[in-house]
Amino acid sequence: MYDKLYRHLLLPFFDRIVKGRSTVAHWKRAEESQWWSRQQLEEFQLTSLRQLLAHATATCPYYGETWQGLGLDAEACQSLSDFTRWPLIGRDTIRQHRLKMRTTTEIHRMTKATGGSSGEPLQFDLDSGSNDRRTAMMWRGYNWAGGAPGTRQLYVWGTPVGNIPTWKRFKMDLHHRFDNHLILSCFEFTPDKMRQHFERMNRYRADVIVAYTNPLYEFARFIQSEGLTPVSPRSIIVGAEKLHGFQRELIEQIFKAPIFETYGSREFMLIGAECEKHHGLHLSLENLLVEVLDDDGSPTPAGQEGNVVVTDLFNYGMPFIRYVNGDRAVAGFEMCSCGRGLPLLKQVVGRQLDTLDTPDGRKIPGEFFPHLIKEFPTIRRFQVVQEKVELITVKLVAEGGNLTLTDRDHLMNEIRKCTGTAVDVQLQFVDDIPLTHAGKLKVVVHAV
Ligand SMILES: [Zn+2]
Fold this sequence. Notes:
Layout: H1 2-18, H2 23-33, H3 38-59, H4 61-69, H5 91-101, E1 109-114, E2 122-127, H6 128-144, E3 153-157, H7 166-179, E4 181-185, H8 191-204, E5 208-212, H9 213-225, E6 235-239, H10 245-255, E7 259-265, E8 269-273, E9 281-283, E10 288-293, E11 305-312, E12 323-334, E13 344-351, E14 355-357, E15 363-365, H11 368-373, E16 379-388, E17 391-398, H12 405-419, E18 424-429, E19 444-446
Parallel strand pairs: 3-4, 3-5, 5-6, 6-7, 16-19, 17-18
Antiparallel strand pairs: 1-2, 7-8, 8-9, 9-13, 10-11, 11-12, 12-13, 14-15, 16-17
Helix pairs in contact: 2-6, 3-4, 9-10
The structure holds zinc ion.
Zinc ion is lined by residues 275, 277, 282, 336, 338, 340.
């Protein structure tokens, strides 16, 4: 009842009249355009891209100068493959040239920051209009999981930290009630808190649970080990970090509900989301142009892993054009049997992890550690830190505070096989490893 009232009356009123936004209008259009043919969608994308390139050439000094220096003319971009000649940018580009990347036209801009999952928070700008569009993409993606605005949602999410004034807390609370959301903080995951969260969750009887991937996995493990029975939601939406197969399996088993993976970032919000077929992540194609490229910048062949490169077609305030976001994904944009024209991003592999060095010159890819440690189900969270070349510290949050002797030997042996003996490896059992504010955890830290 409330969700219909909210969706048809309260939300449009609040969005259009109170806030002067166009989010609902964009959402309605996106619900229709998802059924366009792929060709129609790509034509729309090309038209938007050409407008963006013209705008950036004319009004963003950084882009205008760089492209002119390379002899690139926006007019010459006649197809999506022409666009592959445009240069890539990265976090460093924004750090060095942010002011010159902004448009000189009068557009209402907002400033945002990415979380510190890479250890390096980043500030950037976007225009308010593009914020409405990206929010609309998120609503559509959540709707695929039955989580349209107004449905009763429980968030296992990050909450603001530090001292929040009472009035602000009150305002946030009111907002959540209005939106039909209940927020449980995933930054407070002690056993006592988890028990309280569990009770609140069961009383709340959410239609949909929306959660950061790893905290929800930990929560599911807790529910399992305590032998508790959760009230099943209709579905579960996870984001912020990659969902591994073993996590999907356990979470679905414990909550007895299908899980929908989403992929997004602060820079772009929702990049892709699963539909009811769970074959991959449908791209937010009307808003974003997503490429998967090799290290040399050429398109990655289908089925292989490459770097995710994103262009936001509507952030006119500070355009992101061919931005290498640091994530890895499997290339090949197939179509889905659901009939939507939005191609699928097959699989997000996640952020490229740091590589560790040893004194005898070995390079240990960061991916080694999650791959190994997932074999130890009693390890809840881990972080591998190398601050000196001769020492690798493996921090572990384990059930009961420790591993069995057999598991410890097994773990050490496997690590040793990879690191050799020239580097000292220490296991350190800790009570907690804090997540960043974006709910992420940098699992491998090379800080030599
Ligand atoms: Zn689909």
